[in-house]
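User: I've been trying to design a sequence by hand for this structure and keep getting stuck. Would you show me what you'd pick, starting by listing the structure so we're on the same page?

Assistant: Good idea, let's start from the same input. This is the structure you sent:
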């Protein structure tokens, strides 16, 4: 089973308008049209069984709508697994209600993007939200490190992630981009060897095969998750890159599917 743990899609109408704007902002060429059908076609070509979509709410009033769409999409498309979204501006009652809704509908995790949502990942004001999420048994996938489409202050650094985890030891954390995009020296200093999961999206090619493999081994191959960041990377090419790592077949299978199966609680 091959699982892409980090992909992005939108509703058809939103994708048509949003994709060109995001592509121009990040100076990237998308590899799909960022719709569900486009992702499914890409998965079929690549030989990927499931893709986990990680959308975010940039405003509190978007949360319920995005989560409802994600739940419906997961029910309609059995090879797409939606994460939920939350927003640090939500009230305690809103947090509890939305986490309960996601849990009831078999959503296993939350995606948060501290840069777009304008909060520091280790801000104590967000710990209440983390506690509710942890108590429900959900994980959080954080965008980590630099966002090339949103230059400016970095709200989720490896050091801040470590601070968060030390103060919220029950929360299960996945740090995108191998723990911090373009901050991999800090990843090695603060995160390698901790309990955080790292996804590979947009990172292996930049870090290099040799150093990436060394980082993964040092961290623990049971905590590495294959991700592509589709549509910004080609799923087929990214899967081929992961399979080229100088690791055993069993260890490649850990990264490309078995680790994800565990955190997503898939049979």
């Amino acid at each position: 089973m091959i699982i892409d743990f980090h992909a992005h899609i939108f509703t058809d109408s939103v994708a048509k308008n949003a994709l060109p704007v995001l592509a121009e902002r990040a100076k990237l060429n998308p590899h799909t049209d960022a719709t569900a059908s486009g992702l499914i076609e890409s998965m079929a070509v690549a030989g990927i069984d499931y893709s986990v979509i990680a959308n975010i709410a940039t405003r509190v009033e978007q949360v319920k709508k995005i989560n409802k769409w994600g739940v419906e999409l997961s029910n309609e498309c059995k090879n797409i697994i939606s994460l939920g979204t939350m927003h640090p501006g939500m009230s305690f009652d809103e947090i509890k209600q939305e986490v309960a809704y996601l849990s009831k509908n078999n959503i296993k995790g939350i995606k948060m993007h501290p840069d777009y949502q304008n909060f520091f990942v280790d801000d104590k004001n967000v710990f209440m939200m983390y506690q509710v999420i942890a108590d429900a048994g959900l994980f959080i996938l954080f965008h980590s490190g630099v966002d090339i489409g949103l230059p400016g202050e970095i709200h989720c650094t490896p050091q801040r992630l470590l601070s968060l985890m030390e103060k919220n030891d029950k929360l299960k954390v996945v740090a995108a981009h191998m723990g911090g995009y373009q901050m991999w020296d800090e990843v090695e200093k603060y995160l390698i060897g901790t309990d955080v999961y790292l996804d590979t999206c947009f990172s292996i090619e930049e870090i290099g095969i040799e150093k990436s493999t060394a980082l993964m081994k040092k961290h623990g191959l049971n905590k590495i998750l294959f991700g592509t960041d589709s549509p910004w990377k080609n799923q087929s090419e990214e899967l081929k890159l992961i399979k080229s790592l100088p690791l055993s077949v069993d260890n490649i299978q850990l990264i490309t599917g078995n680790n994800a199966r565990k955190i997503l609680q898939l049979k």
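That's my pick for every position. To get oriented when you compare it with your attempt: The beta strands are 3-7, 50-53, 80-82, 84-85, 109-112, 139-142, 172-175, 197-199, 224-225. The mean pLDDT is 96.
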